[in-house]
Amino acid sequence: MRFYYKAIQNGKIVKGKIEAEEEEDVKNYLKEKGLFVVEIKKEGGNQISFLSVIFDRVNFSDIVNFTRQVAMMLNAGLTLIEALDILKKQTTKQSFKKIITDLSEEIKAGNSFSMALKKYTSYFSHLYIALVRSGEASGKLAEILLKLADNLEKEREFKAKVKGSLIYPVIIIIAMIIVIFIMITFVLPRLLNLYKDFNIDLPLTTKLLIFISSFMTKFWPLVVGVTFLTIIVFRNYLKTKEGKLLYDSTLLKIPVLKEVIKTSSLVDVTRTLSILIGSGVSILEALEIVKDTSENLVYQIAFSNIYKKVEKGVSLGTAMEEEEEIFPPILVQMTQVGEQTGHLDDTLGRISRYFEMESELAVKAMTTLIEPAILVFLGVGVGFLVMSVITPIYNLTSSFK
User: Fold this and answer.
1) CB of 267 closer than 8 Å to CB of 351
2) In a shared domain, residues 99 and 176
3) How many folded domains does the chain comprise?
4) What is the pLDDT, as a whole number, of residue 233?
5) What is the span of the domain harbouring residue 254?
6) Is the Cβ–Cβ distance between 356 and 267 less than 8 Å?
7) Which residue, of 151, 167, 265, 279, has the fewest CB within 10 Å?
8) Do 343 and 239 reside in the same domain of the chain?
């Protein structure tokens, strides 16, 4: 098969053609030659641009939709291979189509669905694979995939609500930082230089502003560089266990924010445990999966402690009770009730919905407080600038009188 390519080498556009079996082979060949791919066009086919590669990436919504569609087709009586072949034809994203094609080929080769999914753990979580494995073992794959799809859709909806609530404050904060940086570095120096020609005493706020402005004017590239270096060092520190633990534990101590983190974490924990236990997964295995899928290291450590206690014969509710700083009394009590009645999965499902409502209220409370805080901060900043700039002018006019 012949491919036509356009690439960049040493700052110049290079065009050519090459014989290859797959587009990926062309990309790898050009990369080895030190060329930056701009576009690849199969002879008689559609053009594949660099931008399309960016927007072709598989995201969380793709996984959610894939799970729902597979579950519905299995529930309608289709085989897993038939469902995957249909989705392969319907999928417009080439990257996801390759994943589905590979999954289908793995299953045709005799591997299980869960084994095939293990090749793509960056897209399919440990929870996802464990539930699929449980569905295969129990013969209820369609039913479990429907539950999993419901769970993923709720997770997507919750994340969208949180992101939607934080978009406005984040945009305002970023815009505010950019405006302050431009004002102090490029605008104010020209204005403040006027005061040097007049023999007047400058207020402390003006002197401070002149010092900051002069420093930023001379060293703003250094400030920007140090800022980016600090961010990189901080991100690398967070990759260590000590850094991650310090960061996560600090977040759980910040007023208002800690309620959002706690309730959202409890939503994931209770919902995941409910689905796993309801799907026939043992409590120990469910705790192991929850520990691995939890994003907060504090909760990971708590579940490691709970796992060890349950392994020794302690009930789940009692083990949770000993981690009282992490798990609220209502969760402990409901878990104990679920264990006593034999309906732990249903009980955890109900408490999950309760924490979901609590988390939404916590997010609303946080955003309600953030907006006035931003306005107050803006007011103080603008007031400082106005006072620093206007006061010397007022003193100057007064001296002329």
Assistant:
1) no
2) no
3) 3
4) 92
5) 150-401
6) yes
7) 167
8) yes
**Is pLDDT above 50 for 47?**
no
In this structure, of 129-138, 197-206, 319-328, the range with the lowest mean pLDDT score is 197-206
Co-location of 250 and 397 in the same domain:
yes
Q: Do 148 and 71 contact (CB within 8 A), yes or no? A: yes
Q: Which of 93, 167, 155 is nearest to 295 (CA)?
A: 155
| Average pLDDT of span 121-131 | 83
- Give Cβ neighbours of residue 194 (< 8 Å, ≥ 6 apart): none
Question: Which element (helix H / strand E) includes 358?
Answer: helix 344-400
More confident residue, 271 or 200: 271
Contact 319, 313 (CB under 8 A): no
What confidence score (pLDDT) does residue 232 get?
Answer: 92
Read off φ and ψ for residue 314, nearest 5 degrees. -75, 140
Under 8 Å CB-to-CB from 192, ≥6 apart: which residues?
A: 206, 209, 210, 213, 389
What pLDDT digit, counting tens, does each position of 356-372 carry?
888 888 888 887 887 78
- 278-292 residues labelled b (16+ CB within 10 A) or e (exposed): bbebebebbbbbbbe
Residue (of 364, 363, 332) closest to 348 by Cα position: 332
Q: Count the Cβ atoms, other than its own, within 10 Å of residue 73.
A: 19
